[in-house]
Amino acid sequence: MPGEIASTQSDEIRLRNLRAQMQNRHDLQMREMEEKNQSSVQRLVENHTTQTEQLRNAFDVTISREAEALEQRLHEVRLHNDERIETEKQTGDQQLFKVKQANQQRIAEYKKNSEAQIESLRKQLQASAETLREQAKKQEQRTDPKLNKRTT
User: Which of 59, 78, 111, 116 is 20 to 30 A (C-alpha) from 101?
Assistant: First the structure.
């Protein structure tokens, strides 16, 4: 029984460590994606600015159309990137929820099994104690004749 409790505790610690590792990995991946997207957006903004200035210098009339198109494209890229980030976040959150739920179920199962074992051992101990009491009474009655006369 103590071995099972220790095993359950070590399993629980391992599960917590696994959860922490998964959370850290998820956070790291999210940061990497955000940094990647930020640098991508930064490059797009820089490219957009450079192109806009060049077009204004060369073509004052067509620049407004080009700028609007580039701004729309940048807006779409940003929206698309935001959607991707949100999708990845939701996927990560769902996976984290599944892991948490599985861990909670496993812990509840271990707890239930441990409680059942404890209750079984408690009943066995109580039955053993009752048996020993009965045997002690019988032994006492056999060895002490005075008690036999009093009880009869």
Answer: 116
